[in-house]
Amino acid sequence: QGQEKLSCKLKKENGTHMVLCELGNPMKAGAQVRGWGFSPTEPITLLSVSGLEDMGDAITFQLQLQSKNSPSSANTSVTVTVPVEAQAEMDLRGNSLPATIVLPVSWHRVEGSRRQEDHGIKVEHVYQLHNKGPSTVSGVTLHLAVPNQLGGRFLLYLLELGTEGGMSCDDPPDLNPMQV
């Protein structure tokens, strides 16, 4: 009964971020304030907090009621700890260009050559890693194993590795060993 919308504002004081909410002006004697309910019948206070990716598995709020009319020496406060769980669904897509290669039976690699075409047909493998959300992600590591040798002979000769979009890659130790 008598639900009212809170008027809240963000305030920063001494390096601490606070959300100040005006509960009533004036608040009637015996009034009750309910927030943070977890059932459909109780009101829910929604707080939007950003930058929680590196906060760990919980965030703690210090809640305090203060009256402007009657200053009290009892500075009572309540600590509320809310679990935080970042969720993000990642999607990895890959494609090879060209998709299929057939080498002639009589084809042989030219020993000692540093020309790419003397070592086979160029195949480009493109992988795209997408964050489908809802949270942002950081510190993602993708390990990609490529079978480059079979029976001591080159199956795929890894020539180069490149990235786009602010990602970094560690070159494998067997990248372009003949300096083609």
TrEMBL record:
Organism from which the protein derives: Nycticryphes semicollaris
NAD among keywords: no
Domain annotation Integrin alpha second immunoglobulin-like: ranges: 3-84
Gene3D superfamilies associated with the record: ntegrin, alpha v. Chain A, domain 3, ntegrin, alpha v. Chain A, domain 4
Main location: membrane
BP GO annotations: angiogenesis; cell adhesion mediated by integrin; cell-cell adhesion; cell-matrix adhesion; integrin-mediated signaling pathway
Cellular localization per UniProt: Membrane
Gene Ontology CC, one term: external side of plasma membrane
The name this protein goes by in its record: ITA2B protein
